[in-house]
Structures are given as structure tokens and as C-alpha cells.
Amino acid sequence: MSTATQPDTAQAADRPTSRAGVIGLGMIGGGVAVSLARRGRVPAVFDIRPDAADGLAGVPAPLGSPADVARASDVVLVAVVDAEQARTVLTGDDGVLAGAHPGLVVVLLSTVAVPVVHELAELCARYDVALLDCGVTPGDKAAENGMVAILGGDPAVVERARPVLADFAKEVVHCGPLGAGMATKIARNVITYGCWRAVQEAAELASAAGVDPATLVTVIDTADPDGATLLSWLRMRIGGAEAHRALVPQVVRLQDKDLAAAQDLAEHLGVELPLVGVARAHGEQTLAIPATEGVR
User: Fold this and answer.
1) Residue 227 and residue 163 in one domain
2) Which of 53, 97, 223, 263 has an alpha carbon 20 to 30 Å from 3's alpha carbon atom?
3) DSSP E strands: which ranges in the chain?
């Protein structure tokens, strides 16, 4: 058999032998399990659906319970829908903690509130189990080793889990202490959904003016194919360059002028643009200009 049909096999012998488990075989968990199997780290898995592993390349049939997965694993990846499911998976009669052994690492892939991360970590600590919060994105790349793992937790625990994480993620980013990974993922989601709202308002405005929204897409894709504009101001602000500070008065004026034009057009066409209104009313906050600086 050619090496092309055995990706990463040559590297498998050099990998640490941490055993991996995956609980929840939906789009993300199932994809993670496939990626792990592709790298030679075939995971123990569980899902409430007995046939959940059917069609997942290289992934074995689910074990009988989360506790069974914990017994067979050194790192357990939990990819369920919400906080309540995560609690049940961890603390149920046949949950992860019922089958846990000292030194087990639980990696929470589900997006939950940060206080829930600390709550679950405290529960795990009672069993000498460490928990990492790990936001992941983009979910549709889970089966292609194509996600970013966005981690919070103790650095030593991150390093213990890293070989498993690297087998499904193209990048492992340790954001800080417990909760930092989840906070970063939540912040990223704010950008995603906020942009969707901005795009919807823009599309409604263009459509009301007689412009096909597809034309708007063409203009945006052609002018900024890599989407660099989205983060350009934040990058400049983080850099703290003099050029950024020098641009502030000009950008404030342009922002207000352009948003005013959008509001005028929207009023004429009878289109509501609430996000535009907030952005303009809080213009200096939109640009993250410190109140002590203002606009000179």
C-alpha cells in the first residue's frame, strides 16, 4: 500500500501513547474522532445513539457509557451540546467521573458560559481529574484536522493533552488560565454573529435601493478577498503605532459621515438599521478610543 493512503503513519511511532476518548459524535465530536483515527490514535467513543459511529472512518463502535470511555482513556474530549449535557456526561451514575482514574484530563469542547467551566473543573478536581476548556472552530473542518483548539487551563495540563489536541487541530492556542479559552471562543462568536447582523443590514439597504445583494457580495469579495478589513483597526490598535493614533480623528469623522449616509438612505427607503445606529451613537467606543483621549 502506498504511503499516500496512510497519512501520518510514519509519524505515529514518534507520538506519545496517550489514549484518547471522545464523548458526543455529532459534527464536531464525530469529526474529531475521525481526525484522531486518521493520525493513528483511535479513540474510545460514546454517544447516546448506538449507531453514531456508523460512517465515521476508522472510528470504532461506541462503548457502553462515558465511564467506560474514561477507563480506556488518558484524555477525554467532551463534545456535547450544552452545559446540562456536560454535567450529565461528567457526573451521571455512569459518567466520566465514575470511571475516572487519577491524572485523567477532560477537555471540554462544548461552548458554555465561563462560570460553568469553573464549576465543572471543581467537580473534576474532587476526583484528581484536570479539566481544560477548549473552544474549537471551524466545526465543519473537524474531520480534516482543520480546526483551531482555543485552550484555557494550567500550562502543565495543556502540555499533557497537547499530543491528542494536535492530532485533530491544525493549531493549538493556549489563551491563558482556566476559562480563557472559552472566553476567547465566545468573543470570536460575537464577531461572527455581529458581522452576520451587519451583513444583513447592509444587504437589506442595498436591496431596498434596487441593488442585487449578490452584487454587494461581488464588490466585497473583490475589494477585500481575504477579509483583512474586518480586523485591520484592531490590529493597528494592538500594535499601538503612532500611525494608528494619528489616524484616529480622521477615522472618527469618516465613520460618522459614512454611517450618517447609511442612516439617511435607510430613512428614505424605510429600512431599519439598529446596528448602524448603535455604531454611530457610540462612535468612539466602536473604535475603542479611550475616553481620556477623545478626538482632537
Assistant:
1) no
2) 53
3) 20-23, 44-46, 75-78, 105-108, 130-137, 147-152, 169-176
Q: What tens digit of pLDDT does each residue of 188-241 get?
A: 999 999 999 999 999 999 999 999 999 999 999 999 888 888 888 788 878 766
> Within a domain: residue 296?
no
Place of cell 491524572: 103
- Whether 166 and 112 have beta carbons less than 8 Å apart is answered as no
Q: What is the pTM of this model?
A: 0.83
pLDDT band for position 261 (cuts 50, 70, 90): very high
Q: Which residue pairs, CB below 8 angstroms and at least 24 apart, start in 11-16? A: 11/39, 12/39, 12/40, 12/41, 15/39, 15/40, 15/41, 15/163, 15/167, 16/163
Distance CA 70, CA 104 (A): 8
Is the sign of the CA dihedral 74, 77, 82, 85 positive or negative?
A: negative
Residues 90 and 96: beta-carbon distance below 8 Å: yes
DSSP string, 99-159: G--TT-EEEE-S---HHHHHHHHHHHHTTT-EEEEEEEE-GGGGGGT-EEEEEES-HHHHH
The answer as to whether 195 is a domain residue is no
Kindly state whether residues 173 and 231 are assigned to the same domain: no
Contact call for residues 104 and 74 (beta carbons, < 8 A): yes
46 strand-pairing partners: 23
Q: Which helix (H) or strand (E) holds 248?
A: helix 242-269
User: Is the same domain home to 223 and 165?
Assistant: no
- Residue 53: give the domain boundaries: 3-178
Other beta carbons within 10 angstroms of residue 60's beta carbon come to 13
Same domain, 37 and 115: yes
Based on the fold, state whether residues 159 and 89 are members of the same structural domain: yes
Same domain, yes or no, for 110 and 216?
no
